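Table 4 source record.
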Amino acid sequence: TPSSRVHIMGVAGAGMSALAVYLAEWGASVSGCDLRGGAVLEDLRARGIEVTPSHDPRHVAGVDVLLWSPAVHEDHPELVAGAVSGVEELRRREFLAQLATIQPVLAVTGTHGKTTATSMLAHVLASAGDASWMVGAEVRGLGAAGHYGGGPLALELDESYGAFTEIAPASLAVLNVDADHLDYYGDLASLRRAFLELAERTRGPVVVYGGDEGARAVATDCSRPVTLVGPPGSGSNAVVTTRALRPFGASADLVAPEGEVHLELAVGGEHSVIDAAVVATLALENGVPVAAIEEGLAAFRGAPRRFERVGRFGSADVVIDYAHLPAEIATTIRSARSAGYRHPVAVFQPHRYTRTLAVGEDFAPPFDDLDVVIVTDIYGAGEENPEGVTGEFVARALRRRGRVGEVLYAPTLRDVARLIERGGGDIILLIGAGDVPEVATLLGVEP
């Protein structure tokens, strides 16, 4: 309730920090702790949220609810202290499940593209009224990643570690279902089944992008009515026709069962058109006026690290992108080509040792036909590396495939910067979910 005192463990995580802001704006007294996330903690402090860069069982004194992220182990001293004190302890997924019973939740899920699409949805709902949102990154033009308002909640719903296995949203958009987090789910079939079960639990409209094999399989198996979104000739109920793709903009038209929407976007790439079409269809099916949908999507200026232009180096644009799965990487490179770039130079930083080993050779095809790909070492994200795998593992996969002009391995980001300083290319793509954007800083990239 708004009068509750809530403590959040792991508050610097993207989902948890958004939740902290949402709860504080709702009226709860919020505190939090995390061993990392200096800049995030500073932002939360500036918003009046009491946060500390340490864990201590004394944090739970006087607390009504203790929320914890998947990164926190169940035997953590703070959790033990909370249990002894009789504090209500909830995982984030349990809290969201409860929240969905008292506030209409319009959820966006998929193995990639969630942050962009949910940010679009937040803009659309904000154009229609006093919306709420929880997104995995700052929502440009609207402020923080979390916000409480009187209207529906635009929620980025993550699949990792079973994070969406309890919630029953009011409405759902499924963008894609690719092989990821198989260390948790075991295999792709189990992952798809989890998405299917989420769709079955959804109380209202379900919208699915039909151009993705995994998402379409979920729609096919779902016993509830599903609206498919896709291009002309795809057999979709909501048809989107792309009219123009520009380096950082796009135009398209959507004809859906609930109405027609003109999509005028300030972000480029076919994937942006797809995200906007799915969001517009979801909004239509929830009664959002066409004018608010068009206004909200036109106001969207992109999500951080999603084909984000950060400046120029020499004669090349420098773009950073969070892509870390093969399908995401392919989308990023397609976006560069559709924007008119002819000679992309791709820098790829693999993310997590387990993922690198699991995906293996599948990292290679998205880079086909590029002149230059620079692979740097793996960003471990706190994982152990018992196999001793390095980024050279991915570089070898690219060389074996033989579809890239030159494959270079640069162990450090400074090594990457030295290679780029040689020149060449009309766009430099810094791809990965780790700290690869620091290459732009090392290069002295100018806006």
